[in-house]
Amino acid sequence: MGVKGRTVDQNARAVSLAAVPGLLDKRMVFVTGKGGVGKTTAAAALGLMAARQGKRTIVCEVSQQERMSRAFRREGVGFEETELAPNLNAISIDPQRAQEEYLRLQIRSKALYSVLFSNRIFQYLAAATPGLREMVTMGKIWELAQLERRWVKAAPYDLVVVDAPATGHGLGMLRTPRTFRDIARAGPIRRQADQIHAFIVDPKQTGVVVVALPEEMPVNETLDFRRMLDEEMGMDLDAIVVNGLYPERFNGAEAERIADAQLAAVDGSADALRAALSEHHRARAQRVQLRRLRREAKGEVATLPFLFEPELDFDDFERLSRELEKKL
Amino acid sequence: MSAALDRILRGKEICVCAGAGGVGKTTTSAAIAMGMAARGKRCAVLTIDPAKRLANSLGLSELGNEATQVGAERFAAAGLEMKGELWAMMLDAKRTFDDLVEAYAPDTRSRDRILENRIYRELSNAVAGSQEYMAMEKLYELHAEGTYDLLVLDTPPTRNALDFLDAPERLSRFLDSRSLQFFLKPGRTGLKVFGRGTGLLFAALKRVTGVDLLQDLSEFFQAFGDLAEGFNERAVRVSKLLSDPRSTFVLVTSPQRDSIDEAVFFNRRLRERNMPFGGVVVNRMHTEAGSRSSNGALGDDLASVLDEALAQRVARNFEDYRALAERDHENVTRLAAELKGEPLIIVPYLDDDVHDVAGLAVMNEHLFA
């Protein structure tokens, strides 16, 4: 989608594939989408893809659900930067820890820092301040994406992939630094919020990917998100990834033969015939939605196949990341 | 194991649909309200989800803070007999918050102090638990008005289902900020209370936030201090209504591992709190039957009605779906063990994606079986 900013005519805006290879050349890719569409799967696949291309990559979880760890069959990675595969790291951002880290860096004086941290009222104040969790989380993501890390020993990353909250909350998170910038008229928070906001809206540094399923409501939500991202942030999507696309296993003529066979079917085969027809039906319905998404997004949409696996494991993510590599 | 929703909802005036994001919560809420309306009730379904999912599924172009009735022609077109009425509305959390401030501010000065505070204006949606709490609050208000026989609440999409239950407590904690006022009023008695450390604390805070932000925050917390009492009393009443036998919680889940894990935790938590629990709805369950051992026989049976190549592909496809069905079955069995006989309603993975009145009607054949 390449071109960013409010100046672009929305109707004429096109997804330009040429810009997408640049996706992994950004500092941060923010992956969002409706709940349950496979954001973690897509974030993991993107992370693996970047890692394979030799980029030192970190996938950030922000919901503290340790989905990445589960996906990679690991113990919870927690707030430590942990290597999951060569070049691929993960972290689960705990706002409390991110806040402590921020304050330590900000205050520098050990005495002042311990005054703050041992103070119950300060803890209370921090917990009650609206939006602070989102702000420190975005701050930590930004910190991870800096080539000059704030911690002397911390190695820089080439790319940060954020497994972000669902569309509504995800947009709220992107907006948070700007809100803090506007509220804090002066002072360190304003300076930092301003810096982080500038980073988010800079298409050279930040990319946004929406994950969808080829179904009515996720497609609608994807298009709505794109509109709101433009209206509220003046930003555009960098890619749309459609997850869980069923294979077209039976063509129309075959489906007819299967339907005919249902009439003559022996007991044991009725369920199998019905399953085949359901597959045919769903695969077709998905393609109607996929076409609609492509038409309304006016451009290319990358698809990931539905994997008939009870639980996805490392090999499956590897496979999906190769699919993504072909299509992005 | 199966139970029908009309039994779960007998005598109920409030049905709260809870569950993680992406499990079909909005769709299920709409289906429940529609099903009860079809049976003659005056029902309203409430959502806080700004993604217009509910409006979408009921064929309405927009939903607002006022209830909209779904026209009878939509049900007729879907071949559904509608004996009652179905209403839908989208809650505006910010406006509900404003209304509460209005109602509980001791005077207009306190009220304006909050409504005009920049932190309140920009960030009141980010107050922990406020979205969830405002949904409960609106539910309470509508229930008190007594216009509907049944209110169905589609809970806001939270990180996890438990956040919803914790909302009143978190908001009360937030509002009970009187202790902060001492600290935040330099030059008043508060400073004496905290002694010498406070000066240092101020210095540290100023270094982090800057003076302006600290002043705004101070204003914000002070202003809310005036409201704490009224708010808290109200929160207690709202919580009481949700634990009342006229209310019930219906947990919505997908048959997948993560979502089932969450359903298990949620059920435990409801029980700990003695909240009225109606049952679980499992959406999109793969139900392909048959056992793996009958593979050879299946091949023969298929070969008798299809050519060999197609028969083989049909058999392989069935095998794939059966593996998913097996997984779903294992997960749901785990959940059922946890439920100890509480109602569990299975909605199979339907051929058609549910996103309109006709789809809801198909879903209801399972929900109200």
Could you describe the 3D structure shown?
The complex is a heterodimer of chains A (328) and B (369). With 328 residues, chain A is of the alpha/beta class. Chain A has a single domain, classed as P-loop containing nucleotide triphosphate hydrolases (Rossmann fold). Chain A has helices at residues 39-52, 67-71, 95-107, 110-117, 120-128, 132-144, 167-183, 188-201, 216-233, 252-264, 270-297, 314-327, and strands spanning 28-33, 57-61, 82-85, 88-92, 159-163, 206-212, 239-245, 302-305. In chain A, strands 3-4-2-5-1-6-7-8 form an 8-stranded mixed sheet, sandwiched between helices. The longest helix of chain A is centred in the C-terminal third of the chain and has 28 residues, at 270-297. Chain A is elongated and about 85 Å long. Chain A starts with 27 loop residues before the first strand and ends with a helix. Residues 1-21 of chain A have low confidence and may be disordered. Chain B has 369 residues and is an alpha/beta fold. Chain B has a single domain (5-103, 126-171, 245-367), classed as P-loop containing nucleotide triphosphate hydrolases (Rossmann fold, 3-Layer(aba) Sandwich). In chain B, 57% of the residues lie in helices and 12% in strands. Chain B has 18 helices and 8 strands. Chain B has helices at residues 5-8, 25-38, 53-58, 72-77, 93-104, 108-115, 118-123, 130-145, 162-175, 178-184, 189-194, 196-209, 211-225, 228-243, 257-272, 295-303, 308-339, 357-367, and strands at 14-18, 42-47, 68-69, 85-90, 150-154, 247-253, 277-285, 344-348. In chain B, β6 (247-253), α15 and β7 (277-285) form a beta-alpha-beta unit. In chain B, α10 runs antiparallel to α13, α12 (196-209) packs across α13 and α15 packs parallel to α17 (308-339). Chain B is elongated. Chains A and B meet through α3, α4, α5, α7 and α8 of A and α3, α7, α10, α12 and α13 of B.
